[in-house]
Amino acid sequence: MAHDAPPSLTRRAALAALLMAGASALGTAMIPTRRMADRRGPFKLADAVPASFRGWTLDNRARGMVVNPQTEAMLRRLYTETLERTYLRGPGERVMLSIAYGADQSDVSLQMHYPEVCYPAQGFQLNNRREDVLDLPMGRLPVRRLETVFSTVRHEPVTYWTVIGDELTMSGLDKRLAEIRHGLQGEIVDGMLVRVSSIDANTANAFSLQDQFIRDLLISLQPADRRRLTALP
Fold it and tell me: What gap in Å lies between CA 157 and CA 166, rounded to an integer?
């Protein structure tokens, strides 16, 4: 014959069930549901980045120069929008620009791919990596420098930075903290990766040219577009 559970045990079981239900509801309520990209409004990289500025002009003949290990189908899945251009200025002054924008950084499978992964995936050797800061009229821009080489022939120094939401981030921890801060406000962050490179065996010369290109580009952008690409005013 079955015996009824003591009243105290029944109450504890009911309280435990109530607490679990509350924790589940709280966890669901804390899951971000609003995309930061939607709040910010429409944004087109091709419209934001000018085709010519401060002596730099597009090199429309330079096809296939920008390193990109992903197929077009993969790019469409990973990023909301990408922009790949090559710019010319004086003799021998050629800089490649690659920008990848993702409106949703909450899904690990959709998060941006960093140059440290992209270049080796294309057969490049990564010889050096370091942090640096560019002093610009609108503020200080933290960047990462890479020295890459393909088959001892193509030396391609790289400068890049990333923006998560409205914050510059240069590490996985910075990125995660930015995601958490926005997530606590119910927002799904977007992400931007801006990469500048040039083919030059003289690394110091390459980085100097890239710095000048970055300054010229950012000065030429509209303030709202510059904030999206750099989180700087």
Answer: 27
The pTM assigned to this predicted structure is: 0.80
**Spatial separation of the C-alpha atoms in residues 169 and 223, rounded to whole Å:** 20
- How do 56-58 and 52-53 pair as beta strands? antiparallel
Quick: pLDDT tens for 87-114: 999 888 999 999 999 887 665 544 677 8
Closest CA to 158 of 180, 175, 171, 143: 143
Amino acid in position 166: D
- Residue found by looking up tokens 């080796």 in the block: 120
Contacts of 149 (CB under 8 A, 6+ apart): 124, 125, 127, 155, 156
Which tokens sit at 195?
């990469």
Q: Which residues pair with 85 in a beta bridge?
A: 97
φ/ψ bin of 59: left (φ > 0), alpha (ψ from -120 to 50), beta (otherwise): beta
Number of helices followed by number of strands (H, E) in the chain: 8, 11
* CB distance 156 to 197 below 8 Å: yes
Q: Which of 105, 103, 106, 101 is nearest to 38 (CA)?
A: 103
